[in-house]
Amino acid sequence: METAELAALDREVLWHPFTQQLGWSEEAAPIIARAEGATLFDTDGNAYIDGVSSLWCNVHGHRHPAIDAAIRAQLDRVAHTTMLGLSHPPAIELARRLRDLAPAGLTRVFYSDSGSTAVEIAVKMAFQWWAQRGEPARTRFVCLENAYHGDTLGSVSVGGIDLFHSRYRPLLFDALRVAAGDAEALERTLARHGAEVAAVIVEPLVQGAAGMLLQPPGYLRAVRELCDRHGVLLICDEVATGFGRTGRMFACEHEQVSPDLMCVAKGLTGGYLPLAATLATEAIHDGFLGAHADYRTFFHGHTYTGNPLACAAALATLELFDSERTLEMLQPKIVLLERELAARVAPLEAVAEIRQRGFMVGIELAGFDPALRTGHRVTLAARRRGAIVRPLGDVVVLMPPLSIAPEQLRRLVEITAGAIAQATAGATADGGAGSRGGSAGRPAP
Ligand code: PLP
Fold it and tell me: pLDDT per residue over 94-140, tens digit each?
């Protein structure tokens, strides 16, 4: 099919996620036909730098020969079999690999298929674990303001981004919310409600979907200590931060924190196939042991839980961290990214703040009227210049694949700077729409 025909059919039959369908047809979004490394190609052969790692998940680039080969080899064995009542080699080997890589104490791996389900599972595990320990009053969860843990009802319940979540409030359970980065606020909440709390859930170090909000150094460690002091579980959602994004394998490592439950997804398969895991301590796992008639079983499992192709892709992805020394090669690129942003993006009139942690970047544009959708217009301008970036409201996000070449990284920043300048030129020049010092842009898809 030709591009025009595909675009027409897209408008006729598809309903895109986080997308106002009414405006969709006017945008002529690229239809991606293939990819190579950090580059996406559309059906007309136009090339784009994948500036958001295909929604924060690509790690070693597209079409990596080792991951492609691992999936093909698994395809010759079995594409899918269930984990309910059966097991398979890639799931077993991957679980051991994850156990060995994860922060100390996380010894059990429970698979699912998206970040949201990994969180949903952690929440259910924490709840059930306490009930089975004879503390059924511990049913509540403490989460951070502006948190994002996914789109299913349980993960939305522990989320805190009004724009995404307030619409669904009547369907959600009630969580306790504290300001992110404020250990004293958490201490007060735990002092008051500790006996009802099952777990505290955090995105460690960076609140991604809130616009790359950074937590102060020491905060995560303080959260761990407060959880210990008040005897509640700590759930770390490493869905966005895991697998090298912050410069270490897991964000928890920066502060030597071991959570009781850890959620991973996105980069787990290198961005190839849907797979997630909830890692648990042996103590949590053992709390579910008992006779069948005791009903201590964890009653949860999806059809594609631990899919063999996805597990094979994940094993290859994790092996590449060693064979390509991914984290070591990443360090100078983190510095380069910081330097390029400081040189090209920071001086722009429209830019209020740049927040970077490793290969996670949020560029906050200064106080534009949300109705102008300035962040969105920046992404359209970037696209015309050859890069895919995606905004969170008026925060422009950069999350390139860890394997991106330095030259391409430079070009990504150059394109982003040009796109910001272009998209905000009118607004700042006439003084009408843009001004410095505005409030933080509310995230919007
Ligand atoms: N948790 C965090 C921290 C995330 O950033 C995301 C997605 O962006 C999720 C959970 C949800 O993951 P998924 O989109 O795979 O359901």
Answer: 999 999 999 999 999 999 999 999 999 999 999 999 999 999 999 99
Q: Is 278 annotated as a binding residue?
A: no
What is the sign of the dihedral through the CA atoms of 429, 211, 163 and 31?
Answer: positive
At 364, is the secondary structure helix, strand, or coil?
A: strand
Q: Under CATH, what is the fold of the domain 66-323?
A: Aspartate Aminotransferase; domain 2 (3.40.640)
**What residues have CB less than 8 Å from 306, skipping those under 6 apart?**
83, 88, 91, 111, 275
Domain ranges of the chain: 31-60+325-429, 66-323
Query: Is the minimum distance from the CB of 114 to ligand 1 under 6 angstroms?
Result: yes
198: left (phi over 0), alpha (psi -120 to 50) or beta: alpha
* 115 Cβ below 6 A of ligand 1: yes
pTM of the model: 0.95
Rounded to whole angstroms, the Cα distance separating 195 from 140 reads: 9
Beta bridge partner(s), residue 143: 177, 201
Asked if residue 258 belongs to a known ligand binding site, the reply is no
* Cα of 118 from ligand 1 centre, angstroms: 9
Q: What is the CATH number of domain 31-60+325-429?
A: 3.90.1150.10
Choose the residue to mutate in 266, 272, 395 for probing ligand 1, maximizing ligand atoms within 8 Å of C-beta.
266
The response to whether 292 counts as a known ligand-binding position is no
